[in-house]
Amino acid sequence: MTARPNRPIYLDNQATTACDPRVLAAMLPWFTEAYGNPHSAEHVMGRQAEAAVEAARAQVAALIGADPREIVFTSGATESNNIAIKGAARFAARMGDARDDALGEGGRRRVVTVATEHKCVLESVADLAEDGFEPVVLPVRPDGLLDPEALRAALAVPTLLVSVMAVNNETGVVQDLAALSAIAKAAGALFHTDAAQAAGKIALDVNAQGIDLLSISGHKLYGPKGVGALYVRRRPRVRLAPLFSGGGQERGLRSGTLPAPLIVGLGEACRLAGAEMAADAARIATLRDRLLARLSAALPGLAVNASRERRIPGNLNLTFPAATAEALMRAAPDLCVSTGSACSSAAVEPSYVLRALGLDTDAAARTLRIGIGRFTSAADIDTAADLLVQAHAAAAPTPTEA
Question: What is the pTM of this model?
Fold first, then answer.
């Protein structure tokens, strides 16, 4: 019997990551000593904050192969996704020919996304129906990947924008962005990707991968919560309508005083990710394989959901043989993992991502998402494996209960 650990074991790194101590150290002076407004360029403290923001902008750009002038700071990936999707559509609508009742360049009304996207993308696309656009949500294959031919078929109708998540937040599956963006570009559509789960975990290059718009969230790559960024291509120029009015900061796309300390933290997190990504990935993949091997040996019938080959190193989405995810978490209270279910106000329903992969309600209810990260140790993995095996034995129904 494994003793209870003296601290929780955190294996939910797709939900959020710990702020790296080096990131915190970089941020602290901008809270306490150099607290000037980065838009107050008339005095020295304002100019210091402005310089720090621009240095961070360059660090974010370097992580994804962009020009610093293409980075717009936001509050996180949800805001970035909304600006990208709604901003592109509303700018196109403004430029449409009302006499022909056309929307967008050449009357492009269609906006295409994928069934396994984050809710903020799915809801943003759905909202555009009110503006006269046609939302299209494509299915995925059982491995979680979008079939390129399904995208090609959807683009037979003139399309304004395609939005495909780089890495899925539940399954960790990595889409082939270069191939999908090439199909979108050939059809004359813009290509956006929600890279919240990808930035800092896998290599991204907006030019090589043909990306027009890309969203980042600080707290997914060991930075602070409350800050993110949107990449907006300059050449050929991508035009967006801002979602709200204000002082015209961030190229007029995102008004409001920039939070210099958070932006400094995001920049440092991106710098560290660029320098340490390969080493982190190799170490985390070893820990993931170690955990899977121990669980598979102890729990015959354990299933890994979605592609094993095309996934980030730190993700395991596992369907357990008998016990439900909720029962497992109750039986292992010191283990921080996520269920494959989304809570509503009245009931727990199977994850729409798992349903899109073809899992039935029973299998989805027995599914956990495990996220291994930079600060996970081998001892954490071994203890987590023991706790999950013990929890499964305690929580699985007996033959008379089954």
Answer: 0.94
